[in-house]
Amino acid sequence: MTPLSFHYDETDQQLANTLRLLAVDAIQAANSGHPGLPLGTADMVTVLWTRFLKHNPTAPAWPDRDRFVLSAGHGSALLYSLLHLFGYPISLDELKHFRQWGYVTAGHPEYDPERGVELTTGPLGQGISSAVGMALAERWMAARFNKPDFPIVDHFTYVVASDGDLMEGVSAEAASLAGHWGLGKLIVLYDDNHISIDGPTELSFSEDVLQRFSAYGWHVARVNGHDMAAVDAAIRDARAETERPSIIACRTHIGYGSPMQDTSKVHGSPLGPEGVRATKEFFGFPPDEAFYIPDDVPARVAAARQAGAAAHQAWEAMMIAYRQAWPELAAQWDNMVAGKLPAGWEQHLPDFSGEKPLATRATSGKVIAALMPTLPMLVGGSADLTGSNKTNPPNEQDIERGDYGGNYIHYGIREHGMGAIMNGLAVHYIRPYGGTFLVFSDYMRGAIRVAALMDIPVIYVFTHDSIGVGEDGPTHQPIEHLTALRAIPNLVTIRPADGNETAQAWKVALERNGPTALILTRQGLPQVTPADNGLARGAYVLADPDGAPDVILIATGSEVALALAAADALQERDVSARVVSMPSWELFDAQDAAYRASALPAGVPKLAIEAGSPLAWGRYVGANGAVIGLDHFGASAPGKLVFEKYGFTVKNVVNKALALLQK
What we know:
single chain, alpha/beta, Rossmann fold, five-stranded parallel sheet, 18 strands
């Protein structure tokens, strides 16, 4: 879409003031919210939404729309005011019930592309960092699908970011990569208002932000954020800069026009009745009329809406011709946009039955190698641990500056940035997976949580999953991490026992619409499960005695083979043991009560075996059960020896099981 006229008049200012005061009224009605940002940034977003942003509110999910990300999610009242005025499905009643039960106008934006909310933002730094993934996805899809005379992917990603976003370390990780990749269609409007919750930013933030971003390889500019013509010119310059992402520091006054202007109090406190009245008087609005929209505002909005609708119509016409000229690519496009996997893809899953012992990180790598040629939407990567995570497919093509059509991303040692960027890729039709050691999942937990909130299909490949890491010692041996990941709602965590469970784990992950964490070993494991195992049900009976079991051994991952060996040893003592492989608590809990009871019947003593924290295992073993786990950190020694010293032996499992039967 060609930018509209750069001439600004009183109607544009009226629109900006309407946005300000709709947000103020919504916050006051809720007696909760953050008026400072809407009052300060309304001028810059008016410029963006009326002159540049390519979108069509009647088709919110149009694939080639520009993306707008309010990374400073505490200013959500401004976003909802924009969406309402421009005709998205956000009613005035929704604004009047800001932050209330049962309404979509949440305190911070929650992912809802059909209503114009492109990302869940709120935890500062996540929005701008995920936007890097969105901008990378635009370049990737353009490289894959665009053909001469058919630029079906050609849009910008715009971000409004705050000082807080740029203080958070995750934004530094992602911004560094954006500059490295040369994402010229990423444009950040930085609300440079010099105020944070504690007071002036100079209390803790004195660097020259633009020099820092220039060092990252960004195009930088500084303007008065209340001067619409200056903001317009800066955005035009940023759009013309095709080789570098852009950040425009827009100097603004937080709480502009209110009695609390330029104070930290206006960041997160309603103005109060008198403050609202004074602010409306400052802008020339009726002081006693809430949710007032001047008569000339809808016409200004209509012009931008018409431009967006025309751009959408032209794109749809181009797609008709594209489908005729490039039918195979068009079919692939349709699958990606719809989130569909190609028919028959699962037939390529490998069967590891009868193979030698292999680490599940290695069998995961073999699954990736088998599936990558059949899943064009699959894009992998690693936080500088490619060889260790086994995440690189054969004949990988790196995604790099100027050559975005590959299938593999080198994120560098930036776990949190990787997690956030994968979120941006996932909301932009790509199926991303990324690898690091399980112990470093702590570094990316914020991004994992946001993925779970959005319920988007991100796959985490977490290797080196236990004390089996061995000589690297307790700093690299995860203990509490499985429990921590299992505590995140909507995240499915899977710890497979061998190659066949690993293959089924990938099947589950790829078929899910939500995020999945694969927990994989460094050390080799024997192949102990059939190809058609029950991993998809979370837990299943892997071995059963002829009669009713005396005891049930429940194990995950590398401890499943140990449980099988212990069951054999118990049989020699005339004790019948059932072995249940339980790779995923979440998948098991989703089964009906009858299935769960059939696998873990009441009244039978249960012993869980897992090289991690025993904290939450009581829900499965019950008050009369027991757990062989770790409530302490590991040690630096060969992995087999560490397992032995901490009781992961056949002898100890047998003794614990016998002790249960004597209770």
